[in-house]
Design a protein that fits this description.
The protein has eleven helices and twelve strands. The chain has 295 residues and is of the alpha/beta class. It is elongated, with a radius of gyration of 23 Å.
């Protein structure tokens, strides 16, 4: 089991179990055997099946977990995702945590897929953000990819993103966007040399992205050599003007308040990327339950 995933599962189980499952221990015979069927109750995209499996096996390695549907499968009410067989007490102790992960990740994958389908046929990528549940980012970003989306930065070391607050501080010190981008590139080279030996960070060119709020700022950022220009909360007409002005000199990302209703219109402006915080911060859990059959 991946060390990071193991830690996440262990924390979730500890949170849920407390001093022990008093209900199950008081009422269920220790030798009782059975089978739990994991069943979906609404349409969507399933994600997190292996996470659920690892939860059950972490509670009791003697349980048998059979995967029926793999991550990425389209499901409808009544779809069976998996079957877990063995000690009923163990199944009950793992049930809630396993379903919490499965429902949450499937909800994110399903929401992401709705956005992806909304822009089908257009040359644009749907991106996530860092607006994730604390401690669950690696899983939630995985669910985005299962739904057909793409991952933006995993963490703060995964690229330079110069946002409005960075710009406000540096402009107060008299720096232009061109000077800010140049400084970012130079300091990134110094930083990468300083982390020599830490994975592949030193082997890659650090990407620089600049958040802007007007067409002139977008053009200035592109001319300054930014790899990506983020158009923050811009109107559609201004997005089109920015795309025309930059004319391929940088990738263009649209961000801010984009919904399922508006995402295709945004994509039609010609932007390359659309980042949507709602993929992770507002996705509704997919309705999934465990139906127990005793032997």
């Amino acid at each position: 089991m991946n060390v990071q995933l193991e830690a996440i599962i262990n924390r979730a189980l500890a949170e849920d179990s407390g001093e022990g499952d008093v209900t199950t221990e008081a009422l269920i015979p220790g030798e009782q055997q059975g089978t739990g069927l994991i069943v979906v109750k609404q349409e969507g995209i399933v994600a997190g099946v292996d996470v659920a499996r690892q939860v059950f096996l972490r509670v009791d390695p003697r349980l048998s977990f059979e995967t029926v549907l793999e991550d990425g499968a389209r499901v409808k009410p009544g779809s069976r995702v998996a079957r877990v067989t063995g000690n009923v007490s163990s199944i009950l102790k793992a049930e809630r945590v396993a379903l919490n992960f499965l429902q949450r990740l499937s909800g994110i994958a399903s929401e992401t897929n709705r956005y992806v389908e909304s822009v089908r046929g257009l040359p644009v990528r749907i991106m996530d953000t860092r607006k994730t549940t604390p401690g669950l980012r690696v899983l939630e970003k995985y669910a985005v990819s299962v739904g057909g989306g793409h991952n933006h930065r995993m963490n703060l070391s995964d690229g330079i993103l110069i946002k409005d607050n960075h710009l406000a501080v540096l402009r107060s010190r008299g720096l232009s966007i061109r000077e800010i981008v140049a400084r970012a590139r130079e300091e990134a080279r110094v930083w990468l040399r300083g982390v020599k030996g830490r994975g592949n960070l030193q082997a890659k060119r650090m990407q620089v992205e600049v958040e802007v709020r007007s067409v002139p700022e977008a053009l200035e950022a592109a001319e300054a050599g930014a790899d990506t220009v983020m158009l923050d909360n811009m109107q559609l007409e201004d997005m089109r003007k920015a795309v025309d002005s930059i004319h391929g000199r940088a990738l263009i990302e649209a961000s801010g308040g984009i919904t399922l209703e508006s995402v295709r219109s945004v994509a039609e402006t010609g932007v390359d990327l659309i980042s949507v915080g709602a993929l992770t911060h507002s996705a509704r859990a997919l309705d999934i339950s465990l139906e127990l059959e005793v032997q």
